[in-house]
Amino acid sequence: MRKVTGDSQNSTGRAFFGRRKGKPLRDRQARNLAELLPTLAIDPGQPAPADLRAAFAAPVERVRLEIGFGGGEHLFHRVEENPKTGFIGVEPFVNSMAKLLGRVEERTPGNLRLYDDDAVDILDWLPDASIDQIDLLYPDPWPKKKHWKRRFVSQPNLERFHRVLKPGATFCFASDIDSYINWTLLHCRRHGGFEWQARGAADWLTPYDNWPGTRYEDKAKREGRGSAYLTFKRL
């Protein structure tokens, strides 16, 4: 959330990163990154299992990918809420990864795997039709028009989504930035492999079921901006 972005050329979908690290880490956070993260990390340099469910320590029935999980509020909530779903969380910002690890350090969930670099690495590593849902929630909006080409939603990345999602699976996108909401709707329509599921305004103005909220959503509300919650079905 507000961390993983699209590439500056927008021709390959490779990530364009700003800061990778913010304020200095506390000793406990640094220890978690050094010791806990490797136990949960995915190595895209190794072949993916034919059945992606085998990548998790616990038995799971579905697999869900969250790209740019920020402080991990939403991801951790879903991990605890859905023990039979395997979650892959991607977040390149060191301080955000440290925050999530602080949430899981006492009881490491068997249905969670993590990656701390470019989300495209994971998308290219995943087997075809292996993912039941992709969440892209409050990504960096790159609000200036000259920077829109850096947004993560692009034709190359939508093609990646389409490849790894199962037929009928969902892509969920949330944002408080009108231009990015419209951008995503237009790009999904242009791609042709995604069907927007809204039938009325309430469908995209209402948060997802059991939505925990995020700090970015709270900030948007304080600043007078509403949010949209878009759901697309992979055709």
Overview of the molecule:
33% of the residues lie in helices and 19% in strands. The protein has a seven-stranded mixed beta sheet, with helices on both faces. Helix 1 (27-40) crosses helix 3. It has one domain: Rossmann fold (3-Layer(aba) Sandwich), CATH 3.40.50.150. By secondary structure, the chain is of the alpha/beta class. Mean pLDDT is 92; it is low at 1-9. The protein is built from eight helices and seven strands.
Please outline what is shown here.
Keywords: Methyltransferase, S-adenosyl-L-methionine, Transferase, tRNA processing. By secondary structure, this protein is an alpha/beta fold. The chain has helices at residues 27-40, 73-81, 94-104, 119-125, 155-164, 178-191, 201-205, 215-222; strands at 62-67, 85-90, 112-115, 131-137, 165-175, 194-196, 228-234.
